[in-house]
User: What shape does this take?
Amino acid sequence: QVQLVESGGGLVQAGGSLRLSCAASGSILSINVMGWYRQAPGKQRELVATITSDGSTNSADSAKGRFTISRDNAKNTMYLQMNSLKPEDTAVYYCAALGVQLRTTPGRALDAWGQGTLVTVSS
Assistant: This one.
């Protein structure tokens, strides 16, 4: 029904930058909230940042001042610009779409997750 595909992960040195993208596809009417979450080895998945359909954002303290979340509602695409990366940012980054309204099931909302993209920051 809804597919999320992340891209842009990779290996970068500490202090470097990466830009993650998440493209949502399907018979989508609207997406309430989109967000980035990450899971480091041996740790629980944690919030990185979220953005609502009207552009309101929320970020984890670890992301503030370094990461910028944005989205293009017309393209159902979300981005995460990550600057000043640190080794502790190493994780699999997951895209989430929360409160998705589909043309095929009006009035119902669902959540969807991507498969994740690996970000590795070397020291």
